Amino acid sequence: MPIQSLNGALRALLLVAIFFAGVWSQSSGVIEDFLWYLPDVQYLAIQHLWLTAISGGLAILVAIPLGIVLSRPSMARWAESLMQVLNVGTTIPTLAVLALSMSFLGIGAVPAIFGLFVATLLPITRNTYAGLKGVDPALMEAAAGIGMSSTQRLMRVELPNALYVIFAGMRTALTINVGTVPLAFLIGAGGLGELIFTGIDLYDPVMMLSGAIPTALLAIVVDALIATVAFLVVPRGVNPSRA
Amino acid sequence: MIQLDNLTKVFDTPEGAVVAADHISLEVPSGEICILLGPSGCGKTTTLKMINRIVTPTSGKVFISGEDTTDMNTQDLRRNIGYVIQQIGLFPNMTIEENITIVPKLLGWDKAKYKARAREMMAMISMEPDAFLKRFPSELSGGQQQRIGVARALAADPPVMLMDEPFGAIDPINRAVIQDEFLKMQQELNKTIMFVSHDIDEAIKMGDRVAIFREGKLVQHSSPDDLLAAPKNAFVESFLGEDRALKRLNLVKVEEVVSDEIATVSPGDTLETALARIEDYGYQNAILMVNDRRQPVGLITRAKARTTKGYCRDHFESVPGTVTLDDDLRKVASLMFSQDATWLPCVDDQGRVCGQITQRAMTHHLGSRFRAREAAARKPDSAVKE
């Protein structure tokens, strides 16, 4: 099997490369340098995650009800224009949003959380709205026809069938959120951005990377975490990853 | 029983008001299936959906079991009407069991009762409860899904069912099977059913009565046989198709046409006797030979009887086929055409000859209704209106 042997060869090559990278980083003392930042990384990563948790949590709490309200038939006339307003909102770069929120909320965690909240709001709202609007009209007619009230239709039919799409929105939004938190350092909210931006200013790549690499790892972990929750929460019949 | 009283729906569109259903008055007696039939856009689906208020009527009333539904709570009304739609609309996030038990749950049944009901429904639609109840709709074939759709509608045992082209999306072979199963269920359940279809053959097969719609108006409401025998106007006639007399073959049973006068010979008779009997009864080409239990065993042809001497038992030919009193004329016609026969012996449950059915009798029976209508049309005072 040529492909399998090729795969095996690549894997072996990768192991060898990792081994030599380890040998080199040990002998040149880079590992020592990184480890020197470990206490900082631990402290800042927790701060980082708090910023994500609070801004992301608030965004979820606001965005999902907002998406639900916009998807109601009585809102149909306003929904599309409101979605456009939110779309325009996202085109503003997060850095500009942070600068704006700093100009009326001052510096520190509060304006940072507000800025991150705004950036995270839209993808979740949009996916909630799209997910609910995308539920097959035949299902809605069947649900109405067997005598479900509009609340029962929402809770038992619409939300369960839109849940996968809603979770996809949360995944995108929170991953972007983790990646955006470093900017919060610029308005004095801390987080791993402290190591990244200070490292850039001091021409210290080790310092910069000891902020950047944990940020990337956090984003991956958050993404995997939400994927796992989605896997467990979305009903089996409408969950493509459990089909 | 479902009664519609001057039910009307007017849609406001940018091009002006469109009357989708125009003063529809209709009555479906308890335990009957009424088919709403017509081309698309004729108002049949709108009429159906006004009964459970998926479409709000502009004016008019709906009575169910004699009760005016106008002031009923919409949810209560719908929970007591089974509803089956063409797209099936099973909830993909729920298991088959959850889908079937949803209306009982809405009605507040206790758990043991609705769980038992789910198994009962599965048995009714001949699907294995243990194999299917825990599965999801996406794991089932289209035909199986629509069976579950019917089971869901029947789960709370509503007296009335509305079905909107329920078997329209199923392939023809499965459709025929499901139609037969459904008719068999209906014989036991005796639901009052309103059923939308655009398929004339389905209407004739399923309907106790058929209501033909055109441009929002009810054109004709009668039994399938009356409809085919006496279409009210040119539209109904063209909608039913040129072969509507043939379609009636499905609806007429042998017992309505059979003549119990049939001469036979027994194996012990001579060919002379057979010839005499053929002449006496004026048979064209043959006479039936029966054994002592009156079961048909052979044919003695006129030619053979005239040219040969001997006993019937030595000179018979095989019987082309027999029909029973319960068969429909379509089967009889098919058998006659394939066997090149102008008559067939008719037998009872024990296989004993009880009469004969001739092509002449069949065409006479089918034609008599047409002639009666023409005669009526010639008399101005009793002319068919329209």
UniProtKB/TrEMBL annotation, chain A:
<feature type="domain" description="ABC transmembrane type-1">
    <location>
        <begin position="45"/>
        <end position="226"/>
    </location>
</feature>
<keyword id="KW-0812">Transmembrane</keyword>
<dbReference type="InterPro" id="IPR000515">
    <property type="entry name" value="MetI-like"/>
</dbReference>
<feature type="transmembrane region" description="Helical">
    <location>
        <begin position="49"/>
        <end position="70"/>
    </location>
</feature>
<keyword id="KW-0472">Membrane</keyword>
<keyword id="KW-1133">Transmembrane helix</keyword>
<dbReference type="InterPro" id="IPR051204">
    <property type="entry name" value="ABC_transp_perm/SBD"/>
</dbReference>
<dbReference type="Pfam" id="PF00528">
    <property type="entry name" value="BPD_transp_1"/>
</dbReference>
<feature type="transmembrane region" description="Helical">
    <location>
        <begin position="162"/>
        <end position="187"/>
    </location>
</feature>
<protein>
    <submittedName>
        <fullName>ABC transporter permease</fullName>
    </submittedName>
</protein>
<keyword id="KW-0813">Transport</keyword>
<dbReference type="InterPro" id="IPR035906">
    <property type="entry name" value="MetI-like_sf"/>
</dbReference>
<feature type="transmembrane region" description="Helical">
    <location>
        <begin position="106"/>
        <end position="124"/>
    </location>
</feature>
<comment type="similarity">
    <text>Belongs to the binding-protein-dependent transport system permease family.</text>
</comment>
<feature type="transmembrane region" description="Helical">
    <location>
        <begin position="207"/>
        <end position="234"/>
    </location>
</feature>
<feature type="transmembrane region" description="Helical">
    <location>
        <begin position="82"/>
        <end position="100"/>
    </location>
</feature>
Automatic annotation (TrEMBL), chain B:
<dbReference type="InterPro" id="IPR046342">
    <property type="entry name" value="CBS_dom_sf"/>
</dbReference>
<keyword id="KW-0067">ATP-binding</keyword>
<dbReference type="InterPro" id="IPR017871">
    <property type="entry name" value="ABC_transporter-like_CS"/>
</dbReference>
<dbReference type="InterPro" id="IPR027417">
    <property type="entry name" value="P-loop_NTPase"/>
</dbReference>
<protein>
    <recommendedName>
        <fullName>Quaternary amine transport ATP-binding protein</fullName>
        <ecNumber>7.6.2.9</ecNumber>
    </recommendedName>
</protein>
<comment type="subunit">
    <text>The complex is probably composed of two ATP-binding proteins, two transmembrane proteins and a solute-binding protein.</text>
</comment>
<comment type="similarity">
    <text>Belongs to the ABC transporter superfamily.</text>
</comment>
<keyword id="KW-0997">Cell inner membrane</keyword>
<dbReference type="GO" id="GO:0005524">
    <property type="term" value="F:ATP binding"/>
</dbReference>
<keyword id="KW-0472">Membrane</keyword>
<dbReference type="InterPro" id="IPR003439">
    <property type="entry name" value="ABC_transporter-like_ATP-bd"/>
</dbReference>
<keyword id="KW-0677">Repeat</keyword>
<keyword id="KW-0129">CBS domain</keyword>
<dbReference type="InterPro" id="IPR005892">
    <property type="entry name" value="Gly-betaine_transp_ATP-bd"/>
</dbReference>
<keyword id="KW-1003">Cell membrane</keyword>
<dbReference type="Pfam" id="PF00005">
    <property type="entry name" value="ABC_tran"/>
</dbReference>
<dbReference type="Pfam" id="PF00571">
    <property type="entry name" value="CBS"/>
</dbReference>
<feature type="domain" description="CBS">
    <location>
        <begin position="316"/>
        <end position="373"/>
    </location>
</feature>
<dbReference type="InterPro" id="IPR003593">
    <property type="entry name" value="AAA+_ATPase"/>
</dbReference>
<keyword id="KW-0813">Transport</keyword>
<dbReference type="InterPro" id="IPR000644">
    <property type="entry name" value="CBS_dom"/>
</dbReference>
<feature type="domain" description="ABC transporter">
    <location>
        <begin position="2"/>
        <end position="240"/>
    </location>
</feature>
